[in-house]
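cron nightly-structures :: item 1 of 1
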Amino acid sequence: MKKTKSNLDELQELKLLKIEHNGCWLAFWGLLAVILTQIAIGNDSKQDLSGEWIVFMCLALYLTVGCIRNGIWDRKLKPNFKNNIMASSIAAVVMGILWFIISYRNYHKLVGSIATGVIMFFSIEILCFLALTLTSKIYKKRLKKLEDDSEDE
Protein backbone atom coordinates (compact mmCIF):
# COMPACT_ATOMS: atom_id res chain seq x y z
CA MET A 1 0.00 0.00 0.00
CA LYS A 2 1.37 3.38 -0.97
CA LYS A 3 1.76 5.94 1.79
CA THR A 4 0.44 9.36 0.97
CA LYS A 5 2.07 12.58 2.09
CA SER A 6 0.59 14.12 5.21
CA ASN A 7 -1.34 17.35 4.82
CA LEU A 8 -0.45 18.36 8.38
CA ASP A 9 2.43 20.49 9.56
CA GLU A 10 4.48 19.52 12.64
CA LEU A 11 2.30 21.44 15.09
CA GLN A 12 -0.86 19.86 13.68
CA GLU A 13 0.79 16.40 13.88
CA LEU A 14 1.58 16.99 17.57
CA LYS A 15 -1.98 18.16 18.24
CA LEU A 16 -3.36 15.10 16.42
CA LEU A 17 -1.12 12.80 18.47
CA LYS A 18 -2.39 14.45 21.67
CA ILE A 19 -6.01 14.03 20.54
CA GLU A 20 -5.40 10.37 19.69
CA HIS A 21 -3.59 9.88 23.01
CA ASN A 22 -6.49 11.36 24.98
CA GLY A 23 -9.01 9.34 22.96
CA CYS A 24 -7.13 6.12 23.65
CA TRP A 25 -7.08 6.71 27.41
CA LEU A 26 -10.71 7.84 27.38
CA ALA A 27 -11.63 4.55 25.70
CA PHE A 28 -9.49 2.54 28.15
CA TRP A 29 -10.89 4.08 31.34
CA GLY A 30 -14.39 4.31 29.85
CA LEU A 31 -14.42 0.60 29.08
CA LEU A 32 -13.19 -0.21 32.58
CA ALA A 33 -15.90 2.00 34.10
CA VAL A 34 -18.59 0.34 31.95
CA ILE A 35 -17.40 -3.15 32.90
CA LEU A 36 -17.28 -2.35 36.62
CA THR A 37 -20.68 -0.61 36.51
CA GLN A 38 -22.28 -3.56 34.73
CA ILE A 39 -20.81 -5.95 37.27
CA ALA A 40 -21.97 -3.79 40.19
CA ILE A 41 -25.57 -3.52 38.96
CA GLY A 42 -25.83 -7.21 38.19
CA ASN A 43 -25.68 -7.11 34.41
CA ASP A 44 -22.62 -9.35 34.48
CA SER A 45 -23.33 -12.36 32.28
CA LYS A 46 -20.65 -13.46 29.83
CA GLN A 47 -22.78 -12.35 26.89
CA ASP A 48 -23.24 -8.86 28.31
CA LEU A 49 -19.58 -8.25 29.11
CA SER A 50 -17.71 -10.19 26.45
CA GLY A 51 -17.47 -7.39 23.87
CA GLU A 52 -16.25 -4.77 26.32
CA TRP A 53 -13.88 -7.25 27.97
CA ILE A 54 -12.27 -8.27 24.67
CA VAL A 55 -11.75 -4.65 23.57
CA PHE A 56 -10.46 -3.66 27.01
CA MET A 57 -7.98 -6.53 27.21
CA CYS A 58 -6.74 -5.98 23.64
CA LEU A 59 -6.18 -2.30 24.39
CA ALA A 60 -4.44 -3.08 27.70
CA LEU A 61 -2.20 -5.69 26.07
CA TYR A 62 -1.35 -3.41 23.14
CA LEU A 63 -0.45 -0.50 25.45
CA THR A 64 1.61 -2.71 27.78
CA VAL A 65 3.57 -4.50 25.05
CA GLY A 66 4.05 -1.31 23.01
CA CYS A 67 5.35 0.66 25.96
CA ILE A 68 7.69 -2.06 27.20
CA ARG A 69 9.00 -2.75 23.69
CA ASN A 70 9.91 0.94 23.37
CA GLY A 71 11.36 1.30 26.87
CA ILE A 72 8.53 3.46 28.24
CA TRP A 73 7.01 3.02 31.69
CA ASP A 74 5.11 6.21 32.54
CA ARG A 75 5.49 9.97 32.26
CA LYS A 76 5.56 10.54 36.01
CA LEU A 77 5.80 7.23 37.86
CA LYS A 78 8.86 5.05 38.20
CA PRO A 79 8.70 1.23 38.26
CA ASN A 80 9.63 0.84 41.92
CA PHE A 81 8.31 -0.90 45.03
CA LYS A 82 6.47 2.14 46.42
CA ASN A 83 4.57 2.88 43.20
CA ASN A 84 3.76 -0.80 42.68
CA ILE A 85 2.28 -0.99 46.19
CA MET A 86 0.28 2.22 45.66
CA ALA A 87 -1.17 1.10 42.32
CA SER A 88 -1.95 -2.36 43.72
CA SER A 89 -3.66 -0.81 46.73
CA ILE A 90 -5.84 1.44 44.58
CA ALA A 91 -6.93 -1.52 42.45
CA ALA A 92 -7.49 -3.64 45.57
CA VAL A 93 -9.66 -0.99 47.26
CA VAL A 94 -11.81 -0.55 44.14
CA MET A 95 -12.27 -4.29 43.69
CA GLY A 96 -12.84 -4.89 47.42
CA ILE A 97 -15.63 -2.31 47.43
CA LEU A 98 -17.07 -3.68 44.19
CA TRP A 99 -17.16 -7.26 45.53
CA PHE A 100 -18.65 -6.05 48.83
CA ILE A 101 -21.46 -4.39 46.84
CA ILE A 102 -22.00 -7.48 44.68
CA SER A 103 -22.05 -9.81 47.68
CA TYR A 104 -24.40 -7.59 49.67
CA ARG A 105 -26.71 -7.15 46.66
CA ASN A 106 -26.89 -10.90 46.12
CA TYR A 107 -27.07 -12.22 49.71
CA HIS A 108 -27.95 -9.25 52.00
CA LYS A 109 -25.50 -10.46 54.66
CA LEU A 110 -23.35 -7.63 56.00
CA VAL A 111 -20.65 -9.72 57.71
CA GLY A 112 -20.32 -12.09 54.75
CA SER A 113 -20.15 -9.15 52.35
CA ILE A 114 -17.43 -7.48 54.41
CA ALA A 115 -15.50 -10.77 54.47
CA THR A 116 -15.87 -11.07 50.68
CA GLY A 117 -14.63 -7.51 50.21
CA VAL A 118 -11.63 -8.09 52.49
CA ILE A 119 -10.70 -11.38 50.83
CA MET A 120 -10.94 -9.78 47.38
CA PHE A 121 -8.91 -6.80 48.61
CA PHE A 122 -6.01 -8.99 49.72
CA SER A 123 -6.23 -11.24 46.67
CA ILE A 124 -6.17 -8.33 44.24
CA GLU A 125 -3.44 -6.55 46.23
CA ILE A 126 -1.15 -9.58 45.99
CA LEU A 127 -1.93 -10.41 42.35
CA CYS A 128 -1.58 -6.81 41.13
CA PHE A 129 1.64 -6.33 43.06
CA LEU A 130 3.10 -9.51 41.59
CA ALA A 131 2.00 -8.54 38.07
CA LEU A 132 3.46 -5.03 38.42
CA THR A 133 6.70 -6.35 39.89
CA LEU A 134 7.10 -8.86 37.08
CA THR A 135 6.23 -6.26 34.44
CA SER A 136 8.65 -3.73 35.93
CA LYS A 137 11.45 -6.34 35.88
CA ILE A 138 10.72 -7.07 32.21
CA TYR A 139 10.66 -3.31 31.52
CA LYS A 140 14.01 -2.72 33.26
CA LYS A 141 15.59 -5.61 31.35
CA ARG A 142 14.24 -4.26 28.05
CA LEU A 143 15.38 -0.70 28.87
CA LYS A 144 18.88 -1.97 29.65
CA LYS A 145 18.96 -3.82 26.32
CA LEU A 146 17.79 -0.72 24.44
CA GLU A 147 20.43 1.42 26.17
CA ASP A 148 23.16 -1.15 25.42
CA ASP A 149 22.10 -1.30 21.76
CA SER A 150 22.16 2.49 21.43
CA GLU A 151 25.68 2.63 22.94
CA ASP A 152 26.93 0.02 20.46
CA GLU A 153 25.90 2.13 17.46
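cron nightly-structures :: done
Residues 100 and 117 are 4 Å apart (CA to CA).
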